[in-house]
Amino acid sequence: MKQLEKIGNYRWTICALVFFATTINYLDRQVISLLKPYLEADGVFGTDPSHYESIYANLVIAFQVAYAAGMLLMGGIIDRFGTKIGYALSLFGWSLAAIGHAFAKSPFGFGVARAALGVPEAGNFPAAIKTTAEWFPKKERALATGIFNSGTNVGAIVAPIVVPLIAITLGWQMAFIITGAVGLIWLFFWQVMYDTPEKKLAKGQLKQSEYDHIMSDKEETVAADGKEFKKVSWLKLLKYKQTWAFFLGKLLTDPVWWFFLFWLPAFLKEQYGLTGTQVSFPIALVYTMTTFGSILGGWLPKYFIEHGMDANRARKKSMFIYALFPLLVLSAQYLGSFNMWFAVIIIGIAASAHQAWSANIFTTVSDMFPKRAIASVTGIGGMAGAVGGIMIAKAAGMLFDHYKAMGDIRIGYGIMFMICATAYIIAWVVMHLLVPKFKKIELD
């Protein structure tokens, strides 16, 4: 504690701002999964229940297509205009789009609203990772990433508690309006409190000791002749194996999180008959567990490094450990047949492992690339994750409609759980083969 006070802790205030932005990000994107029964009952998905799953899958896909495109667009914008402006534009855009869902009346209208939400929401993680790289030395980045990434879990915890209550008391339209408006409050604090370490130091709002700590292992942002380094194009970044390692790691593992996020309420309804506020506690438990997984995911490699392990080996070892836990999902349905809470806890463990994995795979970008390319590379990987999410959403919609028509949708969930269980081990092997060591590359 004394050392922290001596160095200063404003960087953790910045981490808190990013944490709340990420919480809002996931709150806004999850609302539709909790309102699915209300939208069906209100006739938004039409009058033929046999197509409801495919219609819902198409809405998920509309978001993910836009999110994939937004990852490339927003990553470039944030690298070009800077974190402060880029993050603010992103959150303002997705808040307006979230509110706009309240005025949709048909699957097409919701598809437009989901696409409008997807593009600006894609800016959150490129901006968050760039913020972390600007404000934290390498040894603290995974922990900072784990902390702000736990906002995804808090958003997912708050949503099932708050959204059904709003829908029941005020209507589903107000659930979109109220949750969307929360982001506009965050913008005020971001504009007042955020700036780069250099500007905070110049204004006397950051201690010199903390600034030196933040900059202790950072690359220079200007060349020896005083000129600022040029931004790096996406095409140039794609020639590096490091970019493809991150790309494929996200492509293979992000879909698992998308699946749990958008279909967990439906799984609890189909498998155990839970509806409305009945799903609130099981979902809240799952995402409470993932909060601890996210923070542990950032702490473990830091622990390894502090006990003498080099950063590359610490990151790889941690990610391998996290990749093992999702294999438990193979037993979720069987054990859940004895008691629903066995399935809920197993899914919670797998989701926790994903967040631990996510904290580290994001940090590999700042391990491997200089600061001027971080948001763009994060955007490329985020696009890959969204593409994987599109594929898993389409597969889920087709599988669930097919097996529901056959009278046993549980088979469809069993197939999806097999995919979720094995994705991380496959991703770890692929990344290790492409990049045996997470070393920072030299860009031209």
CATH topology: Growth Hormone, Chain: A
Number of helices: 19
**Oligomeric form:** single chain
- What percent of residues adopt helix (DSSP H or I)? over 70%
What is the terminal-to-terminal distance?
42 Å
- Overall pLDDT: 84
Q: How does CATH name the architecture?
A: Up-down Bundle
Count every beta strand, where a strand is a DSSP E run of 2 or more residues: 0
Round the Cα radius of gyration to an integer and report it.
21 Å
Structural class: mainly alpha
List unreliable stretches of 5+ residues.
Answer: 220-229
Write up this protein.
The chain has 444 residues and is an all-alpha fold. It has one domain (2-215, 230-434): Growth Hormone, Chain: A. Helix content is 78%, strand content 0%. The chain has 19 helices and no strands. The chain has helices at residues 2-7, 10-41, 52-81, 83-100, 107-121, 124-135, 138-149, 151-170, 172-193, 197-202, 208-214, 234-237, 241-272, 280-306, 311-324, 332-336, 340-368, 374-405, 410-434. Helix 2 (10-41) runs antiparallel to helix 6 (124-135), helix 7 runs antiparallel to helix 17 (340-368) and helix 8 (151-170) runs antiparallel to helix 14. The two termini are 42 Å apart. Residues 220-229 have low confidence and may be disordered.
